[in-house]
Structure formats: structure tokens, C-alpha cells
Amino acid sequence: MDLNRRQFFKVAAIGLGGSSLAALGMAPTPAFAEQIRHFKLARTKETRNTCPYCSVGCGLILYSQGDAGKNVAQSIIHVEGDADHPVNRGTLCPKGAGLLDFIHSPSRLQYPQVRKPGSNEWTRVSWDEAMDRVAELVKADRDANFIEKNAQGQTVNRWLSTGFLAASAASSEAGYLTHKVIRSLGMLGFDNQARV
Amino acid sequence: MTNHWTDIANANLILVMGGNAAEAHPCGFKWVTEAKAHNQARLIVVDPRFTRTASVADYYAPIRTGSDIAFMGGLINYLLSTDQIQHEYVRNYTDVSFIVKAGFGFEDGLFSGYDAAKRTYADKSGWGYELGEDGFAKVDPTLQDPRCVYQLMKQHYSRYTPELASMTCGMPQASMQKIWEEIATCSTPGKTMTILYALGWTQHSIGAQIIRSAAMVQLLLGNVGMPGGGVNALRGHSNIQGLTDLGLLSNSLPGYLTLPGDAEQDYDGYIAKRALKPLRPGQLSYWQNYGKFHVSLMKAWYGANATAENHWGYDWLPKLDIPGYDVLKMFDMMGRGEVHGYMCQGFNPIAALPDKNRVTAALSKLKWLVVMDPLATETSEFWRNAGPYNDVSTADIATEVIRLPTTCFAEEDGSLVNSSRWLQWHWKGADGPGETRTDVRIMSDLFLRLRERYRAEGGAFAEPLLNLSWPYKVADEPSPEELARELNGVAVTDQVDATGAALKGGQQLSGFAQLKDDGSTASGCWIFCGSWTEQGNQMARRDNSDPYGMKQNLGWAWAWPMNRRILYNRASATPQGQPWDPKKRLVWWNGKAWTGTDTPDYKADVPPEAGMNPFIMNPEGVARFFAVDKMAEGPFPEHYEPFETPIGINPLHPTNKKATSNPAGRIFDSVWDTLGQAKDYPYAATTYRLTEHFHFWSKHARLNAIAQPEQFVEIGEVLAQQKGIQAGDRVRVSCKRGHIEAVAVVTKRIRPLQVNNQTVHQVGIPLHWGFTGLTRHGYLTNTLVPFLGDGNTQTPESKSFLVNVEKI
Amino acid sequence: MASQDIIARSATTTLPPSVRQQEQVAKLIDTTKCIGCKACQVACSEWNELRDEVGHNHGTYDNPQDLSAESWTLMRFTEHETADGNLEWLIRKDGCMHCADPGCLKACPSPGAIIKHANGIVDFNQDHCIGCGYCITGCPFNIPRISQKDHKAYKCTLCSDRVAVGLEPACVKTCPTGAIVFGSKTDMQEHAAERIVDLKSRGFEHAGLYDPDGVGGTHVMYVLHHADTPRVYAGLPDNPVISPLVGLWKGVSKPLALLAMGAAVLAGFFHYVRIGPQRVEEEDDEHPDTSVHQVDPSVHVYDPGKPTAPGEQRP
């Protein structure tokens, strides 16, 4: 064994620190090791969900705290794979396994904001102000640029000067309603992430 | 996917090419490991890089980015010339015997009908079948006619010799041969290969044709409609399949219906053109029912206001003067000041679209931009100077930006459609933070405000807005349940359906066979009909049993169409109606009806002897090797170089400059000047995602930021040595459109390839960084990507362009 | 897990009761199925509520760069060329091996800071940890790390909280390809044997199970394609044994030291408790300053204690 003097003392001295007490008869009461790790899901609510990232569509279980009583808001504290799901069978990839930090990301937007032309900052506005402004802008552009007839006099009823890109992770119900509204405006510059 | 995730376990051979399933879809990839474990399957990976998928492959071979058609063309030639095809399948279930019109031709890289000035095939009249006097396509079952599809295909691919394929792909000939031989073993009935691909195939100027070439291989092997077979697009996002199904594209309507063009002023003509009659006797040609789907959609949208008299609101739909106003087209118009307003719902175009600098310049010309997103995206802050990562002049950008905070998946009910076409319902776990609202509420609020303004003030063509059906209990926040029921569809009036069953008005429909074109049914998306029936929400079903051990899980959620899990599954049985192999049984004829381990994708009561073929959506009834006039660049896939090619010529057509890159690819006039050449930018670059991140979202999640914190590029050891670059050095990657800087990962996993007698180095560029989020900030990778794309899908060529690399 | 399930405690001579008979558990990591996706890393941190610093890319796929008090497991990537020129990307999930004969526990001087459960899990109890770093010296796999925040040792717990209620560890649950599995040790050995048959049929003639005898076997085992050379997997020890320093303490130095035991020793101990762990640099032979608390640099290959703000830009 290759051991120099320094190492020997290091071993001996440090070891003495603890075990010597026991050797001197100062041993703690044997083996009353407390349960050192508590199971954190014992009183959580489970909600079934689907991973919003890729198209595998892994089943998720959202674990939230809060007993659903009046004035008690649920807070999601853990996300795990749904073991009943025939595709992912409880597994999650690194993205799915990190979903808790997406839900609670510091980058989550909290309220409507406006950036004015030329400005270098956001200004907080109310939903009512924001939506009223959007409706005003949409209507103004549509009214100014809507094309009812083309050069040949054919009915075309289209609007090309405003566009819309739809979400790739919105639910089908949201996507359907979006399509219904956007098409009723006559918009053709309408696309989604499938394109790219 | 023609098939689905768990079905991968039924494969004998898995080819991952044009994708990186282990990294991009890890939990789906588990079914590859299951196939290996329980089916003795082998995994072959073909990719420019030795990826994490390759790390568990039985065989890996490198390929030059963008040369996949040369590989597949060579494989088609190999299968045909060595006669290793599934003969009975090919003869009965494909168009090999169809006679092609005399006008079709192919010469020196161009098909007949090309207009070089317009860079398009202006005359596709020759791209079709010879029709007989009875209106049916002519066929030659002996396959001897020199104009039959079989002979034309054989002739077309005879040029793809192993030597030419190898020198085009940069794949050693011995590797290529080994892979082809192994693939060819799957021509045995009952032995199947599955192909898993993703944006490694779609993001090329020839992307759609690469995928067609793969489909042709699978048809030759008899692997389409088979368990463990198919051509499987692994979609990139959780509901990109759903949004495509719902037609949120410039030229589409829900359920793959299409908008009319300007010339289609006549409603009946519009329907008749799409309600295709069978091209062979006894075929189903299911699109004959187009009118039923269309009228039911218009009834869902416009309710009682859609009537036979106003052609179900036909004029309330916009008409197209060009094929479509896709996102590239819109940003091109935006750059020219022709677009004033833009809305982004959960979409980050300055990160996702090609040529970030061009996109930023275009956004800067907008009067206003509305962004709805759960996260602080780069797009919403495109005006903010973020140093080298977004070096813009804020004060000069006059765009008003309104940013609306939305909830995320955990904070809403609803359904998503995965790559398997499964509609899966999910439930809300908690409220969103702060004042976040759902997309449904925002869109409803916008609609109601607009409708109110048009009612009060009038304005341009208010009719469709005022007539839109809005029957929701809470007008400014329709419930996902209401919308899902509307998507499925209802009987508008009391009626009797085709089977004689009575339906009461208001009753949920049980399937699209009940749809009618007389206004008595409404359905928001015909292919989703059956998802929410009188029996309730089928998308929420949770029976995961697998009684036949065939991994079809028919009781879990609901798949369109009509809970059929494998498309074209009639082809899994012989013409006589029995499975090709008892171990691969999906559907069979039991003497009275079609039944099986999957829901038959077929008319249930048509006996085998009737001769109705499996590809029921095609008027031919069979699958097409010859794409007739459906594709922009020709009926047969042909190799063309990426627009930025490292070798400067197309080895198949070295002397015809018009055929170097896709002659019908999507490119705008102003883009030509932004393309670089190999003398300045010698390395072939490709972009991709990493398993630790999801696009530009997960960089906002701390756990993922830890797992992959900082932007890097991958460079092969040989190139790194030439350039004096060591692992961990910072490098600048530049092209004619801009540059990025990143840490160099120097690797053995990218090796120089011998292409057309020269050495080609490839550079790998992951894409997840930007100037917002919790990772170390970085450049948007798409700064480097050219603003051009596929001529069919308009998908940008993000996977193949030229760069230079320098140590900083 | 309850106290009846503990079969060994550090620095304790009396035997715990261990009244319950439990089956030995094991986690089997199949490197041949692993795709290096790091789901296990993320799931581990998520479950255990750990958030390490956002680091840098150092020219490899390895991130974080090394284990830390806030990263209990991570993937180590090796580009390996075989003799016949084939490239392999060997990916090994590193973390505590839960040795049957745990060197950390043997070396630990603080009563009850390290415990071994009857099912084989070796767990650290930070309430009793004195931060001496001796577990690191004792560990043949270089796993435990001292936190820069509270100066206590941390490592993988094999999710003893989950296992206690009948769940698999978080890394096992999440693993997309089933490369990590969990169960009784005998079941895991059987499963490994089946995997090895499959691997041999695919040409990996040296495929085998890593369950090294030198530490009495482990409760975390690997299936390796190249079991004849574990070292090619980012330095997995070919024949791990407990450091001779630990053996020395137990065998030779303990009786000698007992002779020398006295007030000075006790004072030294309390110095420990009060000030923290003692570190002596070998180079510092002439001027030992035991009042200086330093962490042995060999213990921390990578120092996550140089925090850099998220999003901070490098020059």
C-alpha cells in the first residue's frame, strides 16, 4: 500500500472525528434513522394531459397541490408520464420531463403589453384596451384593402394585406375556431407551422 | 404517419433517414427498441451525421445532405433490375399497368411541358393516363407496353446506377449495396420495413419528391398498408397534424378540402372538379363525396344562413388568384410593403422562417403585429436590440406590437392530434399565471368585437362575419366541448341515414358516412366525424388493451378516419382477402364482411371478388408510382442539387444548368442574389434540433437550459484540423446572408465525403438558441438558411445550404 | 423507508435491527439501448427539486460538465473507434452505483450520515453529514459531491422516497427507450442475460454485465457492448475497489489511533463540527494549516460554484 505520512494522518485524524466517539462509548442510540425522504405526491391531485412538444403525443399526469376547495387555486408541482398511455407508457423525454419548468417559466407572459412605434419598451395595458386596439387595426386594414372583385370582375372576396400564423400546439378546438374566424374575414395569408 | 407509433414494433427492418427519431421523438423511438427486442428487427440509419439514433443502429451510413433521391433512385433501380419486388402486391395494388399519355417525356433532367422563363411546368397535359372511350384509364396487365408505368419507371431509374448514386450521395458504394440488399429482403410478403422520416426530408427544395421516392420503394416492397410498414412522417409539433387536418393553410379548408380559385365562379363546377369519378371500374373513389363534406362544413360555419339558394355561402369563402399565400409568400410581400398587419398565434417566425435578417426587415415594415403566446418570443421582441444576436435600430422600427399572454397546455381542456392521427383529449390542471387567456377566448373576443363594429359601422363585405354561426353558451369563451361536438357534426334535422337508421335533429353524428349535401347535416371537419358521438367523447377513451397483440390499441383515444389506425390497411391482405402473413394480420374478409385487428380502411361489405382496390381515396383505386399532375416538378422523383450546391453541378445532368437545382423549386426573384457559391462558402451545412430542446420554447425552461446551455456547431475532425479548430473554440459560421458564432464541437461523427470526385465537408448547426430565454443567448440559426423552398409544399431548404467556418 | 429497513449506518458499530426482510433491488442501465437523451438527468433534477447552474458548452455533448451537489446523474459521451474502424458513440449514464459494499459508508466518520437499506439503496442523510468529503475518498466511482452552499455531501438516492412507496426511481420511469429498468437484483441479472444474448447475436461478442465484485457487486448495473473494457465508457473503472485509505483506517490506523485518543482528538473533532471539513494539501507539507477549510480539488473536477447568470453572454 502506497501511503505517505500526510495521508496516514489524514485518514486517522478524520476517522477519529466520528468513530472515536463511538469507541469511547458515546454511540448514539442504535439505528433510529428517521425516514429521510418524504414522498411528495402523497396529497396531490392528478390531471391527465398530453405533452405539448412533439407529435408522439405522450400522456402526462399533472400533479397539483390545492384541495380544489373554494378559493384554493391548484398549483402544479410535478409532471410525470402516464403509465397507462400505450405509446409512452409512463416515459418522457428530456423535454417532457422538464415541462414543470415550462409551466412555471419566468418567461411566461402575465398580462397584455404594447410596444409603440419606435419605442424600446413594453407598456402594460388592460385586455379591454388591447383587444379593442386589435379589432380597430384589423377592421381598418380589412376595410381599406378588401378585394371583392378581381380585374376580370370575378367575385373573389379576399383580403391579402394582413396575415395570420396559427399555433402548432394549440388544441384542435382552438385551431378550428381560429380557422372559422379568420376565413370569415376572407383572409388568405393564413398558414401554420406545418409549412416550415 | 400512414401507420403509427406502437405499430413500429411490428417492423422487421427500420430505416431512419431524413430524420433523427431517437433525438426528436425519443418516446416514439422506444417502439424501435421494442421491435429490436421482440421482433429481432434491425435498425439502419442514413444521415449526414452519426446521430444519437445512429448510436443504437445496427448499421449506419453517411450521406450528403440533399442527395436522398439519388439513394432512393438507385434503390428503385436495384429492386427493379434484380426483380426483388412484391410482385402480387405491385401488380394488383399499384398503377404499374396504367398506360401513360404519349405527351409525357423526360429529357436531360426536364420533364415535358417546362417553361424556363416562368421556372414552372406550364403544360402538364402529358402527365396523365391514356383514357379509353369508357372514361377509364387504359391498362396493360402484362406490363409489356413501353408506355405503361412499370416500363417508364424502369427506364427512368435505369440511370441511377450504383456508381452514380454513390458519387452523388458521397456514400461508399459498399455501404450502399449492403443497405439496399437488406432492404430488398423486405419484398417477401409478410416481411416489412418501416421508414421513419421528418424534416430531414421535408426541408429541401426537393423535399416532397424525396418522400415520394421513399413511398415508391415501399410500394415496390409491398409495405404500404402493412403492419410494421408504411411511410411515416414524424410530425414536429404536438398538434401540427391537427392543424393540417383542420386546414389552417392558405389554400385549405378543414378535412383536406380546398378553396376555390378565381376561375371557379360556379359552385357546381367547384364541387364537380373535386368529386373525382373512378378511373377504373368498381373503384370507390371516395372523394366522390366531396360535396357532402363541403356542405356539412359550411353548415357548421354558417348554420341556417348557409342555404341551397346561396350555394351554402360559397361566395363567403375567399378565392385564390395564385396557388396560395403561404408564409414565404406573405413575408416576401411584407418585405415589399404589401402587408400591413400580422398576427402570430404561438408561432415564432423570426426564429422559424428562413433568413432571419430578411424576416426582420419584413416585420419592420408592418404597421402592426399581434403576438399571442405563453412565452416572450423573439418575434414579439424583434424590434429590441440584443447586441450581435439582434442588431436592429429600435427607434427606426415603426411597427406597433401588441403582445397577448396565453395559457399553455396545462391550463386548458382540449384535444391534440398526434403523428399517429390519434385525437387525444386532455384536461386542465391549473389556471394560467397572471391575466393569461386561452386562444379560444382571444379569437372569440376578437370576432365579437369585429362583428359589433361591422354591425354598428358597416364596412367591407360584412356578410360572412355577420352570418357566421356562433351558437356557444358563453359567447366570448366557447367551451372546448362545444367546439369538439361541432367539429364532429350533428344532424341538423330529423332524418334517416344511408343505413336506414333514424337520426333526430341535434343528434351527434356517428361517422362521415352520415354526411349529406342537402344541408341536413353539419360537420366542422368531416375526417373528425366520429370523434364525439352520441356515445360521448371518443377522444377521451382510455382502454389500452391490445387483444390481438398487434399493437393497434383501438380503444385508446380515437384516430381519424373512423378509428382506422393504419391507412390503406386493405393492402395488408391478398387480393383474395386474407393476410399476406398470419403474423401480420390487420384486416381480412370473413365471408360476410371485412374485419380485423384494425378497423378496415375500406368499404366493409365489399367482397374481395368485386375487385375494389385498397387505395380508396384515389380514383384509380391503386397507389401511384406515376404521380400524374400532382407534383410541381414531375411525375417521377428526380435528383436535383440543393440551390446552394457544394459541387456546382447535378451529376445526373452535368451539362444542363437548368436541371442543376429543382427547375420548379420555390424561389423569389430577390432571393437569387442572396445565394452563395462553393468557392466562397465551401461547406455543406444542415440545421437540426437536439433532443434536449424543443425549438425555441424549452430554452425558457430551466431544466432544459441546464441540459444544453449554449449554442454550438458540429465540425468533423478532419475539417477542424484543417481550420485549426479545437473542441470548445468559438467559431464563426457564415454564408452570404449573414453569420452566427458558436462553440465548436469537434467530432468523429461527421466525416468528409467523396462526392463527384471531390471532398465535401459537412457542418452541423443545431437551432435552439436565441436572444430570449434562460439558456445562454445566441444567434438564431436560421440567419443562415436561404429564403427558398419546395415547389409543392413551399417548405424552406433549411437542411442544405453552403457556409464557411472560421475560428474566431 | 422506515428504520427497520436500514442494515448499515456509517460510523456505528452496533447493528441496526433490520427486522424486515426485503428483496434486493437493482437498477440496470443498458448502455446499448441508451440514446443519451438526458431525460434521466432532467427527471432526476425535476423529482429531487434540483436546479444546477446553466453552464457552458465545452465542445462536447456532456452537460452539465460533471456531477455536482445539484446534478446527481449525467450522461458521459465517448466517441469510440473499434479495432476494425467502426465508429461507436458510447453513452453512459453516470451516478451512484449503490455498492453492496459501499466505500462511502465505510469511510464516513459521522454516525448515520450514510445508511444502507436492506434493499441495497445507499443513502446520504444530510442532517448528519459533517461535510468532511471522506465519502468521496471512499468512493471508487468518484460520485459524491460537496455542496458549495451547505458544505454537505450529495448524490443519487436511488429515489429512496419513490422506492419506499413502490415506485421506480424517476430516471427509470422516464427513460424513453427502456434503457434503464428497475426491479429485484435477480430479475435485473436475468434481464441483462437476455440482452447479452441479443447483443452477441448482433455481433457484440464481448457484451456483458457490469456488476463488479470489488465492491461486493452493485445495485446499479450496466449492460455494456464491451464488457471486457469498461474503461472505454468515459473511464468506468475496470476493477473498482474501495480506496486503500479506507481499508487502512479500518484495519491499521484505527487501533493505533485509539491509543492516541484523548482530549486533543475530541477538540479536533469539535473543530470539525464547528469549522467544517479538514483538507490537507500534500504539497503543503511544511505549513499545514488545519484551520483553513478547503475542498480537495481532486474532488471537484468541475466547479459549478462559479455561477454565471442565465443568458449572460460570453465575450
Automatic annotation (TrEMBL), chain A:
GO molecular function, one term: electron transfer activity
Keyword terms: 4Fe-4S, Iron, Iron-sulfur, Metal-binding, Molybdenum, Oxidoreductase, Signal
GO terms of biological process kind: anaerobic respiration
Pfam annotation, one family: Molybdop_Fe4S4
Domain 4Fe-4S Mo/W bis-MGD-type stretches: 44-107
Protein name: Formate dehydrogenase (Quinone-dependent) catalytic subunit
InterPro entries linked to this entry: Mopterin_OxRdtase (IPR006656), Mopterin_OxRdtase_4Fe-4S_dom (IPR006963), MopterinOxRdtase_cofactor_BS (IPR027467), TAT_signal (IPR006311)
Major location (coarse): other
Organism lineage: Bacteria, Pseudomonadati, Pseudomonadota, Gammaproteobacteria, Pseudomonadales
Organism encoding this protein: Pseudomonas putida (Arthrobacter siderocapsulatus)
GO CC, alphabetical: cell envelope
Leader peptide range in chain numbering: 1-33
SUPFAM superfamilies: Formate dehydrogenase/DMSO reductase, domains 1-3
Required cofactor(s): [4Fe-4S] cluster; Mo-bis(molybdopterin guanine dinucleotide)
Highest taxon in the source lineage: Bacteria
Keyword Methyltransferase listed: no
Automatic annotation (TrEMBL), chain B:
Domain Molybdopterin oxidoreductase: 2-446
Predominant place of localization: periplasm
Record flagged with keyword Metal-binding: yes
Assigned GO CC terms: periplasmic space
Subcellular location(s) per record: Periplasm
UniProt-listed Gene3D superfamilies: 2.40.40.20, 3.40.50.740, Dimethylsulfoxide Reductase, domain 2
InterPro entries: Asp_de-COase-like_dom_sf (IPR009010), Formate-DH-alph_fdnG (IPR006443), MoPterin_dinucl-bd_dom (IPR006657), Mopterin_OxRdtase (IPR006656)
Molecular function in Gene Ontology: 4 iron, 4 sulfur cluster binding; electron transfer activity; formate dehydrogenase (cytochrome-c-553) activity; formate dehydrogenase (NAD+) activity; molybdenum ion binding; molybdopterin cofactor binding
Record domain Molybdopterin dinucleotide-binding: where: 685-801
Keyword Metal-binding annotated: yes
Cofactor(s) demanded: [4Fe-4S] cluster
Keyword entries, A-Z: 4Fe-4S, Iron, Iron-sulfur, Metal-binding, Oxidoreductase, Periplasm, Selenocysteine, Signal
Pfam families on file: Molybdopterin, Molydop_binding
GO biological process entries: anaerobic respiration
UniProt xrefs under PANTHER family: FORMATE DEHYDROGENASE-O MAJOR SUBUNIT, TUNGSTEN-CONTAINING FORMYLMETHANOFURAN DEHYDROGENASE 2 SUBUNIT B
Family: Belongs to the prokaryotic molybdopterin-containing oxidoreductase family.
Protein name: Formate dehydrogenase (Quinone-dependent) catalytic subunit
Automatic annotation (TrEMBL), chain C:
UniProt cross-references to PROSITE patterns, sorted A to Z: 4FE4S_FER_1, 4FE4S_FER_2
Localization of this protein: Cell membrane
Main location: membrane
Annotated InterPro entries: 4Fe4S_Fe-S-bd, 4Fe4S_Fe_S_CS, FDH_Electron_Transfer_Unit, Formate_DH_bsu_Proteobacteria, Formate_DH_C_sf, Formate_DH_Fe-S_su, Formate_DH_TM
Cofactors (names): [4Fe-4S] cluster
Gene3D superfamilies: 3.30.70.20, Single helix bin
Annotated ranges, domain 4Fe-4S ferredoxin-type: 25-53, 87-119, 120-149
Cofactor remark: Binds 4 [4Fe-4S] clusters per subunit.
GO biological process, one term: formate oxidation
Domain of life: Bacteria
Entry keyword set: 4Fe-4S, Cell membrane, Electron transport, Iron, Iron-sulfur, Membrane, Metal-binding, Repeat, Transmembrane, Transport
MF annotations from Gene Ontology: 4 iron, 4 sulfur cluster binding; metal ion binding
Binding site for [4Fe-4S] cluster 4: C108, C129, C132, C135
Ligand binding ([4Fe-4S] cluster 2): C44, C156, C159, C171
Binding site for [4Fe-4S] cluster 1: C34, C37, C40, C175
Any one of the GO CC terms: plasma membrane
Pfam family, one: Form-deh_trans
SUPFAM superfamilies: 4Fe-4S ferredoxins
Residue sites binding [4Fe-4S] cluster 3 per the record: C96, C99, C104, C139
Region (Disordered): 280-315
Function: The beta chain is an electron transfer unit containing 4 cysteine clusters involved in the formation of iron-sulfur centers.
Identification of the protein by name: Formate dehydrogenase iron-sulfur subunit
Species for this entry: Pseudomonas putida (Arthrobacter siderocapsulatus)
